[in-house]
Amino acid sequence: MAAPRPGPLRRLVFAALLFASWPALAAGHNTLTIGVTQAPGPLNPNIDVLAAKSYVLGLALRPFTVYDADWRLVCLLCTRLPSIANGLAVPTNLPGGKRGVDLTYTIRDDARWADGVPVTTADVMFTYEVGRNKQSAVSNGELYRRITGITVKDAKTFTLHLDKLDFDYAAINDFVLLPAHVERTAFADPAQYRVRTRYATDPADPGLYNGPYRVSEVSPGAYIVLQRNPYWAGRPGPFRQITVRAIENTAALTANLLSGTIDMVAGEIGLPLDEAVAFDKAHGAGYHVIYKPDLAFEHVDFNLDVPALADRRVRQALAYGLDRKGLAQSLFGGRQPVADSFVSPNDVGYTGDVPHYAYDPARAAALLDAAGWHQGPGGIRRNAAGQKLSFTLMTTAGNHSRELVEQVLQSEWRRIGVDIQIKNQPARVLFGQTIPHRQFQLAMYAWISSPENVPRELFRSSEIPDAANGYSGENVAGYKNPEMDRLLDALEVELDPAKRKTMWAAIERIYATDLPSLPLYFRSDAYILPKWLHGLRPTGNQYPSTLWVTDWTVAP
Predict the structure, then answer these.
(1) How far apart are CA 252 and CA 421, in angstroms?
(2) CB atoms < 10 A from the CB of 164, how many?
């Protein structure tokens, strides 16, 4: 059973106690305090995929390439994007008739870590060494495995040799540099790197950051303070200090905003849409509120190692047994459309030609009967061995919107004879331990991607995290389908957009048929900003607005 929800008085007491542990606010607008609903956890950019971490590191690290708010691929740490036309991307012939590509990048000449040490190809080679090591627990080991080698030209220029010529070959977004001069000692024992990385043991070391800001103080689970990087050569950030505060209870987050303890709520990891709309109606005149549809979709992951969930009929029954359209309408006023696959209608890969799961309890019941789960005492289904059809459902504790959705799922699935036990966890535990280690049955959260992002890490059978690969994969459902594997491999290397569109449609149909996860709705994010803050542009993709903090301005 879910724990009782705290009343308003208990929430305020909780908030007051939390305030006492936070640093005092500076006067004026030379500081900014941002509220988020998740604690980022250890800050190593290549270990664990957390939205809160990406948001904080958007202020402090510069990837080589990212997609901007116009969904264009741009250089941040590099000087020029490689292309076949400019000669910096050279297709190569590989054994077996395969095509690879050599990509040459040059690091910005003025790039420095916040301790003054230049960013060089030594950092490139060290990052590659960490990424290639199977014991290092990097989240995107696939990227590093595809780089067959690196040729260093000088301290700033290098060439990556890739084993595939992808349609998005210039995007090395996940190749985020680690500082060799700081991290090499921590990597002495690769199997212990996850816990020994300086991002975990000494996150305020300035040598860890090369963006416009550097982390100067960390209170785990509570707040992170960032100061300007004195060696940043670009346009300076508008604030002397930025504090990012984790307030996982969304009611407390709202109270903190109204009290002035925080200046803004990050859209990427802030208030769910229903709570943001309610806030806007009540208090919007005093704030600048931006609504942005994005490439995120809320879903429920199924752990396919759970015997009952391994049966596709059970997964499909759960889809038919849930009134997703009614849920989206009642909780979000129809502002977050029902998802029938994982690809947003705003993305180029979208197709509507997939199986749809309209609310149909009778069909859900028939599927469960066919799967051997029949009505038992108390209305809960049981199999021939007498086992109850019961699952544990998890999401981020304190997220009021998700907790409401959970209650709807629990109630509606109860009507088709499925027992749901709710067991929520703080985001730092759910995303840092439970989901990567596949210690769940049902888990509700969101995926967000870049434009036309091949979901290899989510659905390819080789990307299932386990002890052997250091839990580095993101196929946490444990999904295996040879045809899906084949299509993902083919999609990556198809340069013709029309042919890719056909492959995307096939992938989405397989997903919607197999349902390794249950799609709920496509998300819109709400950015609640002070009237005096300008220039923040939501991207609508996985790259946070904080990457462009130097474009933010302060008005009187």
Answers:
(1) 25
(2) 14
Find out whether 398 and 37 touch, Cβ atoms under 8 Å: yes
Q: Which residues of 277-309 are buried (b: 16+ CB within 10 A; e: fewer)?
A: bebbeeeeeebebeebbbbbbbbbbbbbebebb
DSSP state of 434: I
Amino acid at 272: P
pLDDT given for residue 108 in this prediction: 98
Q: Sketch out the chain's domains with CATH numbers.
A: 65-190 (3.90.76.10), 294-524 (3.10.105.10)
First to last CA, the chain: 50
Give, for 56, the enclosing helix (H) or strand (E).
helix 51-60
* Share above pLDDT 70 across residues of the chain, in percent, rounded to a whole number: 95
State how far the Cα of 337 lies from the Cα of 521, in Å rounded to an integer: 5
Residue 317 and residue 416 in contact, taking contact as beta carbons nearer than 8 Å: yes
pLDDT of residue 469: 83
Show the tokens assigned to 377.
């005492």
Predicted pLDDT of residue 400? 87
Angle at 517 between CA 334 and CA 273, to 5 degrees: 30
CB atoms within 10 A of CB 242: 25
Average pLDDT of the residues in 428-441: 93
Count the neighbouring beta carbons within 10 Å of the beta carbon of residue 54: 22
What is the C-alpha separation between 203 and 494, in angstroms, rounded? 41
The mean pLDDT value for 29-41 works out to 94
Q: 549 and 305 in contact (C-beta within 8 Å)?
A: no
> What are φ and ψ of residue 181, in 5° steps?
-70, -20
- Are 249 and 9 in contact by the 8 Å Cβ rule? The answer is no
Could you say which DSSP state residue 2 is in? P
Find the helix or strand (DSSP H, E) in which 425 lies: none
Pairing, β 390-394 against β 419-422: parallel
Q: With contact defined as beta carbons under 8 Å apart, do 406 and 2 qualify?
A: yes
What would the mean pLDDT of 324-335 be, rounded to a whole number? 88
Q: Helices 497-514 and 312-320 sit at what angle, rounded to 10 degrees?
A: 90
Residue 20 predicted with pLDDT over 60? no
The pLDDT of residue 276 is: 94
- 0.85 cut: is pTM over it? no
Asked whether the beta carbons of 522 and 501 are under 8 A apart, the reply is no
**Mean pLDDT of all residues belonging to the chain:** 92
Q: Which residues are bridge partners to 391 per DSSP?
A: 420
535 CB burial (10 A radius; 0-12, 13-18, 19+)? middle
Show the 3-state SS of 106-166.
Answer: EECCCCECCCCCECCHHHHHHHHHHHHCCCCCCCCHHHHHHEEEEEECCCCEEEEEECCCC
Query: SS3 letters for 55-102?
Result: HHHHHHCCCCEEECCCCCEEECCECCCCCCCCCCEEEEECHHHCEEEE
Distances in whole angstroms, Cα of residue 109 to Cα of each of 119, 128, 156, 157, 212: 8, 21, 7, 10, 15
Helix (H) or strand (E) holding 448: none
pLDDT at 11: 31
Angstrom CA distances, 182 to 53, 126, 208, 285, 353, stand at: 20, 11, 7, 47, 51
CB atoms within 10 A of CB 274: 20
DSSP state of 112: B
